[in-house]
Amino acid sequence: KAGVTQTPRYLIKTRGQQVTLSCSPISGHRSVSWYQQTPGQGLQFLFEYFSETQRNKGNFPGRFSGRQFSNSRSEMNVSTLELGDSALYLCASRRVGETQYFGPGTRLLVL
Amino acid sequence: AQRVTQPEKLLSVFKGAPVELKCNYSYSGSPELFWYVQYSRQRLQLLLRHISRESIKGFTADLNKGETSFHLKKPFAQEEDSAMYYCALSISGNQFYFGTGTSLTVIP
Questions:
Q1: What is the DSSP string of A36-104?
Q2: How far is A63 from chain B (nearest CA, A)?
Q3: pLDDT tens-digit profile of B30-79?
């Protein structure tokens, strides 16, 4: 069974730009969660989507948004990028009530 | 508010020595707790969850509700245990809160 995939793997943007990250969950997994990982803060929960609906949201500004498609694939968008948005963005998918499986992450560098 | 605290950012032990990675949580309800591990150049993966009460790779963790702790223990550390370890708390199985992680180095 293929694992969670994320594209792109690396991204360099400049301040003020926007970025879209993509996550393809494991087949049959309808829940997709996004996390921001930084050395100082560890993993911080961004949001979770289930059946195309945002079910939970972390404490991030409105510049961070996401969506989920009918095939469970999910995208995350960050608008008006700031230097502090540089991080590894992780996606995780799971079946309801089961453990999360993480993707390899997208490393975003904002210059 | 829910919070997971891992007080040690870095931990070094000698091979064969016991290791304990500390995790304390703050949550008024009944939490579900996990330990995740990230080996060098690998994805974050589940190590164990408290409801399973099992030992994975020699690691165990006991939920202590009185002390609100979920420390990860192994009696004899191995070099391959060197990794980043994250403690996580789940609310209703939907939202996960992670600690800031502990980097474990096992010295040969």
A1: EEETTTEEEEEEEEETTEEEEE-S--TTEEEEE-TTS-EEEEE-S--GGG-EEEEEEEE-TTS--EE--
A2: 20
A3: 888 999 999 998 999 999 988 777 788 999 998 888 889 999 999 999 99
Alpha carbon of residue A103 to chain centroid: 9
Nearest CB to A42 within list B49, B93, B98: B98
Q: Which of B94, B97, B101 sits opposite A48 (nearest CB)?
A: B94
Query: Residues A100, A45: contact at Cβ < 8 Å?
Result: no
Amino acid identity of residue B4, one-letter, is V
Q: Are A88 and A24 in contact (CB under 8 A)?
A: no
Size of interface A-B (CB pairs under 8 A): 43
Identify residue A48 by its one-letter amino acid code: E
Q: Considering only CA atoms, which of B37, B44, B14, B3 is closest in space to residue A41?
A: B3
Q: What whole-number distance in Å separates Cα of residue A36 and Cα of residue A10?
A: 14
